[in-house]
Design goal:
mainly alpha, 3 domains, 16 helices, 71% helix, globular
């Protein structure tokens, strides 16, 4: 199920209405929200539920194991490895088989037809895996206490508002608020939540989908003679805004629903196309993913420590893997690699004397330089 399906129009009032009735009874409220979330996730695809339950049980047991064992690093490695292995199987098997077939000439074999034609990637599996990894790493680091209740942990990982498109939540932002005495029993800023939901629906259904109607025919025939001679730049600009309105619309709805049920979650977008550099862009675009990649991949790789070459390599690895997380195709790896190159160039540029002089400008020259930076950054993002 998704937020824009007609079934969700019937699902949400029932879930919210029953929650209002049982919210004062902690076990019933917990059980109801968990049951509703599993229904949301498995709607018309019940075969997916064993996957999400296996993730849940494995991560929860690994957390308990880390609490009791002296071999905490081994437990963490196995837990994170399980999350990545399951994610890789479901998301990247088609890419591996199709690439292997193309390289060694296996295109005539029957199994090569399976990935492209019939393979179904479970909805939200990337967000589910990252949520589990964040929990295990934070338990390992001592940033959060291990969760002893399987039911609380299951709700933390599967709560339907944030499952499909984020934001990617840390345990301290959600799991810590599910314990008795802390779990909300009333909506938090319902007017703000309603506004976010309405804004998200407007972004998705009115803006993003309207833009899609205009540009999809062009991109569907971009290599055909029917688009020969057509100026592509306006379609590229429109596509940039389509994906922004689409993605930010979904996360607006998720955050608004969170407020309805008493939870405030972090913003995920902050005017990303007004960024003055690619580094600034990633501080504004899908911010919960950016901080996840920073805290759980970039910094463990070494972050800003070491030589310029080592830092550049850390940036490239982080962005290439971040690109691959977005989609199982070589084009997504190329997209991530381009952003990695942009970040390396940005980092080198920020160390120059000319950058310091331009950053010190004031008044009109500063405004001109700022808008030049915004336009340049936007075109770099569009290029990627």
């Amino acid at each position: 199920m998704s937020f824009i399906q007609i079934e969700f129009v019937y699902f949400l009032p029932v879930v919210f209405g029953v929650w209002l009735l049982v919210r004062g009874h902690y076990p019933m409220a917990l059980a109801w929200l968990l049951a509703a979330s599993l229904f949301f996730y498995g709607f018309k695809q019940w075969w997916i539920l064993p996957i999400i339950l296996a993730y849940c049980l494995a991560d929860w047991l690994t957390g308990l194991w880390m609490q009791k064992t002296r071999r905490r690093r081994l437990a963490l490695t196995l837990g994170v490895g399980f999350n990545l292995l399951v994610l890789s199987f479901w998301k990247y098997t088609p890419l591996v088989i199709e690439t292997s077939a193309a390289l060694v000439g296996w295109n005539a074999l029957p199994f090569n037809e399976v990935p492209s034609g019939n393979w179904i990637v479970p909805i939200g599996i990337s967000f589910y895996a990252f949520t589990g990894i964040a929990y295990l790493v934070d338990v390992y680091r001592g940033a959060i206490a291990v969760e002893k209740s399987l039911w609380r942990y299951a709700l933390y990982t599967s709560f339907f508002p944030h499952l499909v498109a984020g934001p990617i939540l840390r345990p301290s932002e959600f799991l810590a608020h599910l314990r008795p005495g802390l779990m909300p029993t009333r909506p938090l800023e319902p007017a703000e939540g309603t506004f976010l939901i309405a804004r998200g629906l407007f972004k998705k259904l009115v803006l993003a989908d309207s833009i899609a109607i205009a540009i999809d025919p062009f991109f569907a025939h971009v290599s055909d003679q029917s688009t020969a001679g057509v100026w592509a730049l306006p379609y590229t600009y429109l596509y940039a805004f389509q994906i922004y309105f689409d993605f930010s619309g979904y996360t607006d709805i998720a955050r608004g629903l969170g407020l309805w049920f008493g939870f405030r979650w972090p913003e995920n977008f902050s005017w990303p196309y007004l960024a003055t550099s690619v580094q600034d862009f990633w501080r504004r675009w899908h911010m919960t993913l950016s901080r996840f990649l920073r805290d759980y991949l970039y910094i463990p790789l070494g972050g800003n420590r070491g030589t310029a070459g080592r830092v550049g390599a850390n940036l490239m690895i982080t962005m290439v893997l971040g690109g691959l997380w977005h989609g199982a195709s070589w084009s997504f790896m190329l997209w991530g690699g381009l952003h990695g190159c942009f970040l390396v160039i940005n980092r080198l540029w920020s160390t120059t004397a000319l950058h310091s002089r331009l950053a010190a400008l004031t008044d009109k020259p500063a405004a001109v330089w700022r808008w030049f930076s915004i336009v340049l950054t936007f075109h770099a993002v569009c290029l990627a």
